[in-house]
Amino acid sequence: MFQAPASEDVARFVGVETIVSGRVLARDGGVTRVEIGGRTLEVAAAGEPGARVRLAIRPEDVTLALPPAQGGASSARNVLPGVITRVTVTDAGVRVVVDCGFPLVATVTRRSLGELGLVEGMLIAAVFKASAPHVLPAGASLDTPAEPRL
Known about the structure:
The protein is mainly beta. It contains two helices and ten strands.
């Protein structure tokens, strides 16, 4: 249930904050390319080109990194440059919202907050593996805005 929620409601119940709509562009080598907010994401899930999909991305699956000066390589298939729009410190850690063509929520530790100097308006790279996004079932609403609940 936690890794593969059956619906958008279940996904939100188990802590998924980023649920976005997109369109499948292509499938190649076990990876499906999905266009969301003008960005192309790589997802380790099946999808037919042209199909509309909903992706659920858990905040703990998103890593934040300072933008690489020379395009450093990574095994993570999704490295999205963006701007931090909100930083919220909670008892459990730090919640960071990044605008990378769509709002993407990440959670980091207070130590990471300090070491990276994370502040609103800062350029950052949001990074996650192709296996991180979960494709919600076809019955999931495609009309819900592509925004995390704040």
